[in-house]
From TrEMBL:
Family matches, as InterPro entries: NAD(P)-bd_dom (IPR016040), NAD(P)-bd_dom_sf (IPR036291), Polyketide_Oxido-like (IPR051606)
Domain of life per record: Bacteria
Entry-linked PANTHER family: FLAVIN REDUCTASE (NADPH)
Residue ranges annotated for the NAD(P)-binding domain, each copy included: 8-196
Protein name: NAD(P)H-binding protein
Amino acid sequence: MTHIVVLGGTGYAGRYIVDEAARRGHDVVSVSRSAAPAGGPVTHRSADLLDPAARQAAVEGADVVVGALSPRGPLDGELGAVYRSVADAVAAAGARLVVVGGFSSLRPAPGEDRIIDSGRFPGAADAPPVPPEALEGLLNEARQMNATLLDLLGRSDGPDWTFVSPGMGFGAHVPGEPTGRYRIGDDDVALFDAEGSSAIGGADFALAVVDEIEQGKHRREHIGVAY
């Protein structure tokens, strides 16, 4: 049994990871700003992760810390500093860090620029365009998540980490049905199906994350997860 702390455990990705890890019998602590649900096998803690003392207390004693935070609300503009601090604490404890990243940190093909740097967002041909009023917000989040990846890649003294990017179609607006399957894209490369779509449901993404926690196949690597 592994002691797993999920930062952002009540968010979309976080709650699926919490549920899957608890289902497999791990000792799971969910940390978030929101009120903690009562009962069940998971320990829920409320914390303001902008507070350095709260961050230290949140990850203390963990074997694995999962970062499932989004650069929204109070964390907008602060996510990079929060993750750097968490990474320092995880490294000092000899634990492991698994960060849920964004699709745009992946590369469309080996050796190509990351999607966030290329200026294009590949996906299904019939996918609706992003409304202009929403685009800058998406780019802002993508840049902050990508900065966390680059920080981890550039650290020689950091923790044992894995950065996991879901497919482009991922979130509460496209939850999908659990299938029990997924594919892993190594070397920062995004995965697409025969129709050119890249997507993963929340439950299946959580399967991939908890499998990685248990198996440790992609240490200090950035991987993509999609169908």
